[in-house]
Amino acid sequence: MDRYSRQELYRNIGKAGQKKISESTVSVVGMGALGTVAAELLARAGVGNLILIDRDFIELNNLQRQSLFDESDIGKLKAETAAEKLRKINAEVKITAKNIDMTFENISGIGNPDIILGCTDNMESRFLLNDYALKNKIPFVYGGAVSDRGYVFNVVHGGACLRCIFKGSTEETCDTVGVLNANTAAVAAIMSNEAIKIILGKDYEKNLVRIDFWKNDFSKIKVAQNKDCPACTGKYEYLSGERKSSLVRMCEKGSYQIRGRKKDLAAVEKNLKKLGEVKMFNGLLHFGSITLFEDGRALVKAENETEARKIYDRIIGN
Ligand SMILES: [Zn+2]
């Protein structure tokens, strides 16, 4: 009973607020720098149900900022690994891990939570979440962090949405400018706090929060609904699949994702073993420059798209 005593003593929460928190469900989409920190804060705060979604596996360069992972996790799936850690932190929380590459076709997998936390790193997935949240009237807390700059915005039906604010649609945050771990931690902390306010039915932030973390400059930018915004006028271009990325896309410099057909990983492993070392974890397989997921997706390290496709066809085939 003592677990939440410090939170219950806090004037805006109390015992009644804590009960609300324990009855809430939050979907955290993206288990990277923002998602791991935000999910940890929410689990410690006692959010009753957490749904964790991620498509990726853990790499050494993630450890600088992705707080739930350690060296022994390298190569494992992010959503699953984060769930295991969170269960040790708070066994009272019901945690569901989903290893999916969120698209307009499978986005219903994030369920019907009270709040969606958008912790992904690219505009396309944010706009997809934006559509889903508006259509289903689920509050959606957006966060973004790159270099020393961060943004947080609450998308709530009736107010401005991400498409009212941001124009870009296909740009990816390539890891070219780096990111401060204190910046991502701060953005994730603001996001989880906004989620708690919304769960409690308290006044949440209506402005776009902008941070210049190097200068300790926190500002609020007033934003208004755009009357020509497609999403706000019920035209969900990302959710309908009207706007979607192609089969092959670049994830970061020198890394391409290819969407292939569902694979029997054990069978693939058997074949590849003859050619070299294969590493298998629950739900994924690593071989040379290829990482293959159960759902048929592959991440290929290559110079360009054509080469990535060639490597995929040669090693994995159709
Ligand atoms: Zn809008």
What does this protein structure show overall?
The protein is of the alpha/beta class. The chain has 2 domains: 2-233, NAD(P)-binding Rossmann-like Domain (Rossmann fold), CATH 3.40.50.720; 248-315. The chain is 30% helix and 22% strand. It contains 9 helices and 14 strands. A hairpin with a 3-residue loop joins β13 (290-293) and β14. α3 crosses α7. The protein is globular, with a radius of gyration of 20 Å. It starts with a helix and ends with a helix. The model has no long low-confidence stretch (mean pLDDT 91).
Overview features:
6-stranded antiparallel sheet; Rossmann fold; binds zinc ion; alpha/beta; single chain; 318 residues
Rg measurement, Å = 20 Å
Main sheet: which strands, in order across?
Answer: 3-2-1-4-5-6-7-8
Reading off the top of the CATH hierarchy, the class of the largest domain is best stated as Alpha Beta
Count the domains. Answer: 2
**Mean pLDDT, nearest integer?**
91
CATH superfamily of the largest domain: NAD(P)-binding Rossmann-like Domain
Q: What's the short version?
A:
This protein has two domains: 2-233, Rossmann fold (3-Layer(aba) Sandwich), CATH 3.40.50.720; 248-315.
